Each structure stands twice: as C-alpha cells, then as structure tokens.
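Hi,

I'm pasting everything inline rather than attaching a file, because the server keeps stripping attachments. The sequence lines come first, and each chain or strand is labelled.
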Amino acid sequence: MREIFEAELQQLGDDLRTMSEKVAQAIEDAGRALLDADLSLAQSVIASDRDIDDRERALDDECVRLLAQQAPVATDLRIVVSSLRMSASLERMGDLARHVAQVARRTYPKRALPEAVVPTFTQMNDAAVRVARRVTELLETRDLALALTIERDDDLLDLLHEQTFGVVLSPDWIGSVQETVDVTLASRFYERFGDHAVSIARRVSYLVTGDAPVELG
Amino acid sequence: MREIFEAELQQLGDDLRTMSEKVAQAIEDAGRALLDADLSLAQSVIASDRDIDDRERALDDECVRLLAQQAPVATDLRIVVSSLRMSASLERMGDLARHVAQVARRTYPKRALPEAVVPTFTQMNDAAVRVARRVTELLETRDLALALTIERDDDLLDLLHEQTFGVVLSPDWIGSVQETVDVTLASRFYERFGDHAVSIARRVSYLVTGDAPVELG
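And the predicted assembly:
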C-alpha cells in the first residue's frame, strides 16, 4: 500500500514538473512572439494553453482521489495540498503567457512594443523564462538555493515593471494610446507571472523546511 | 465524532462568508475611493486587506487540519477542498480591491479617472459590489440562481472592460498617459475581480450538483 502511494506522490511531482516545463516554453514563446511580432508563435502559445489547463484539472482530480483513498497525514498531506496550490499557480502562469501572446496577436503585423520599451521587455522576458525554468528545476531537486534565485528574479520583474511605467510616463514617450495600453498590460502580466513563481517557490520551501509560506501582495 | 465534524464544516462555511463580506466591503469602499478620490477610504481598504489575508491563512490551516484529523471522503472532502480554493479566490479579490484603492491613493488629491470613463467605472463598481454580495449570499444559501446572476454580472464586467478600452482608444480621448495607465490597470482589476467571483460560484455549483467546475480563461 505504502509503495503504491509513494509511486502516486512521485507521479504527482512528475506531473507538476511537466506542467512547469510547458509553462516555461509558453512564456519563452510568448516573449518571442511579443518582441518579434511573430504571429504563428503567438497562435501556438494561445492554442497550447488548453493543454496546461487540462493538466491542471487532471492533477487536481488526482489530488482529490489521493486525499479520499489514502487519507494522507503529516508530510504526505502537505505534499498533496501543496500540489493543488502549485498546479493552480502554474495554470495561472500559463494564462499569463497566453495573455502576452494575445497582445502580440492583436497588434500583428505591427509589433505591440515601441522601440523605447524593447530593452526593458527583453530583460523582463529573460527573467520570466529564468523563473519558469527554475521552478521546474526546484520541483525536481527541491534545492532551496533555487527558491532564492526565483525570489530575486521576481524582485527584478517588479523593478522592470516599475521601469516600464518610468518610460511610458517620461516626457519623451511618443507611443500611441494603444501602445500605452498594451505596454501597461503586458508589463503587468510579467509582473504577475513572477508572483506566481514565487508562490510555488515558497510552497516548495514549506515542504522542505516546514515553515508556512507567506503570500505576496 | 460526526457531530463535531459537522460543526467544523459549518464553521468553515461561516469563515468563508465572513471573508466574502469583508471582500464586498473592500470593493465597495475601493470603488468609492476611486470615484470620489477619497484618500482615507483608500487607506482603510489597503489596511484591511491584511485581515483578509490572515483569514485565508487561518481557513487554510483549518482545512488541512480537517483533512488530517477527519480524513473526509465524498461530499465532505469536496467541501474541504473547495473551501481551500474559494478562500484563495476571496483572498485574490481582496488584493484586487486593494489594488483599486492603491490607484486612488497614488493620484490623490487628483481623481485617477477622467470624466469620460466615470460612467463606465461607476457601472463596473456597481457590478463588482453586486457579485461580491451575491457570493456571500450564495455561500449562505447555495441557491444556484445566484450563481447564474454572478456569471451574468461577470459578463457585464468583461463588456465594461472592453468599453473602457473603447473610450481610451477613441479619437476623443484627451486623458494623460498617466490616466491611460491608471484606467487600463483599474479596469483590468475589476475584470479579474469578476473572474474570481465566477470561479467561486462554479465551485458552489459543483458542491450542489456534482458537476466539475470549468475555469475561466
């Protein structure tokens, strides 16, 4: 019985990692779609989000099944409940990647971003891809040094989000109203993407250390 | 034993309703702060969000305790797992009310919203307050007619969100870049507020009917 349950918990971890890999791919492609005005890449991100959503549902069903059939306690229970939470965060990260891709698609063949914000968004996308990949690695290794780098990249995303506003609100800004709207939204999507990654990082830390995670504002 | 557990489930429901009442108050006050440029109201929403966050944590701890000690199955298990989900949605709704209040605070003593979008935001806030109050009522009564009205008000929020963009992107728009940014963000906050309310409504429907809830994009 215990052996089967161990295998089931292992499977839960594998499923989370697969979701996380898909999310990392999604944000990387969404970023390229946004920065290069690549329509087919944008379409593919939008289409693949359904797969991430399906994986969340399957993972949740599995968690509820495990709660019912195994009645886990202590660490096992924490793993199952945390998995429910982490799958929700990954699902939202997938949505946010899709939202970025939708901005790219809406303005195609024009690029959504004016030149003035391209450097900031390039950095923002690099940081988002990094956090997503590190979430995958953290789920694999539970190496808490990775959790720390995720927190740091999230701080960077917050800073770049502020920096975007700095560019948009400067007297030199010559973007159209549509560009202002798109830059504001896309920047917000990246900022939220980082928050969800941190939320996962804190849940993994909680599993490892037993210290309850603190939610971001 | 069963009697104690029944009382604990009852308490879980009461705690969710209290959270929901606080969220309804928060979005009502945040909307007034935004529309009337009322700084003290904005401050009070921002300060009270901590209380909502604390309630989520307490509710989650209680859910995990119940899972461990009662090992619920079937409907009871669904109630506990749904409570975990619904408390997360309510916590996010509280955050979004706080974000609206933060927009109001940032621009004080100026109102964040130019006249041209005030009618739309008035409707948006009315709809948001309605959905929050109906979530409270739905948690109390489990009357699925309320779930339907929440879905409809969410559709209205989506429509008003689009309408906001219509105003901002029209040739008549004379708002500053800062106003464009604030209107874009505040409108997005209301739109997400509605999504979370629908997510709760669907989870209650799931508890009543047994049909699995579908997440919004």
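The interface with chain A takes residues 49, 53, 56-57, 63-64, 67-68, 71-74, 77-78, 81, 84-85, 88, 91, 95, 98, 165, 168-169, 173, 177-178, 180-181, 184-185, 188, 212, 215, 217 of chain B (CB under 8 Å).

If the labels don't parse on your end, tell me and I'll reformat.
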